[in-house]
Amino acid sequence: MSVLDLARPEIRTLQPYSSARMEAGGGQIMLNANESAWEPAGAFGFGCNRYPDPQPQPLLQALATLYGVRREQLFVGRGSDEAIDLLVRAFCRAGQDAILVQPPTFGMYAVSARIQHAAVIEVPLTQDFQLDVAALLAALTPAVKLVFLCSPNNPSGSSIPRQDIERVAQALAGKAVLVVDEAYVEFSDQRSVADLLDRYEHLAVLRTLSKAWALAGARIGSLLANAEIIALIRRIMPPYPLPLPCVAAALAALSSSGQVLARDHIAIVREQRAVMSEALMKVPGVRGVLPSDANFLAVRFDDAGEVYRRWLQAGIVVRDIRRYPGLQDALRITLGTPEENARLLAVLNEGRA
């Protein structure tokens, strides 16, 4: 059985849109795409009057090297959100198929499924926000085509042990695609499971440059998967998903000097994570700080609403996650610079002496 047998048959046979840039490129006089012959004002030399390469080879190579995969195992799009949406559209028939998620977790899996009119099966994490493998496997039905695991998880911050991910992958063979979202893996001691792609043809991994690589505004996300899955996703991707300035920003961030800078900042975040966790636990009114492998902390309060309002009045914005199951008393705090973190603590401690 091929992993493509899990995909929608109409997508497997779809004739993809063939853009002008795909059909012909590299010429000296480009008259095939109805573009302007003149660059716009303020284009900074990007050549923005021309449509970009849908999957630019320099960026594919840089990301393939970074993630330890082959270029044919890599799709690059507008953040991980686009890859999630394309996976759901490729594998889930409207009104028939389903995805499986473990709340509390990243909300876009369910949003993309519901837009596609695919069902969402939920298997909650345990009370300490760990994956319940047995419950997950028991909840599988023939309708489930995609199983999403977020590791480290958003919003709790916990990682899924590698052996649990492999256990799920083994159980899903021939049944569903396992999608492991590693948006925060750079901040964790646990390494990526991308090295398992050649072992499990139904495994897919989501990566992003938004977090550790400081490119949230550029919207560069990657899907790592079996070459057949990548080819399928490229059938239904938008004609030109990657704007030229965003590609240039990504290549700069992935340069030798950019990688040194990113790793310096990751080290600061990891250090601040320990510092802030310890400091927050000493503040009256803090019930607990969840263990985190990400660049944020989920913190429980006696009165999370009052703390949220106090920080907001001081110009400090954190994420209210009280709507998530098991986190009705919690706020999610992204780790900022040491100075920003110190200010957050100072506001929290005001009037508590």
From TrEMBL:
Modification type N6-(pyridoxal phosphate)lysine: residues: 211
InterPro entries membership: Aminotrans_II_pyridoxalP_BS (IPR001917), Aminotransferase_I/II_large (IPR004839), HisP_aminotrans (IPR005861), PyrdxlP-dep_Trfase (IPR015424), PyrdxlP-dep_Trfase_major (IPR015421), PyrdxlP-dep_Trfase_small (IPR015422)
Cofactor: pyridoxal 5'-phosphate
GO molecular function: histidinol-phosphate transaminase activity
PROSITE patterns given in the database record: AA_TRANSFER_CLASS_2
Domain of life: Bacteria
Keywords for the protein's UniProt record, in alphabetical order: Amino-acid biosynthesis, Aminotransferase, Histidine biosynthesis, Pyridoxal phosphate, Transferase
The Aminotransferase class I/classII large domain, residue ranges: 47-347
Catalytic activity field: L-histidinol phosphate + 2-oxoglutarate = 3-(imidazol-4-yl)-2-oxopropyl phosphate + L-glutamate
Pathway(s) it belongs to: Amino-acid biosynthesis; L-histidine biosynthesis; L-histidine from 5-phospho-alpha-D-ribose 1-diphosphate: step 7/9
EC number assigned by the record: 2.6.1.9
Enzyme category, top tier: transferase
Subunit text: Homodimer.
Family, similarity comment: Belongs to the class-II pyridoxal-phosphate-dependent aminotransferase family. Histidinol-phosphate aminotransferase subfamily.
Name by which UniProt lists this protein: Histidinol-phosphate aminotransferase
Lineage, opening ranks: Bacteria, Pseudomonadati, Pseudomonadota, Gammaproteobacteria, Lysobacterales
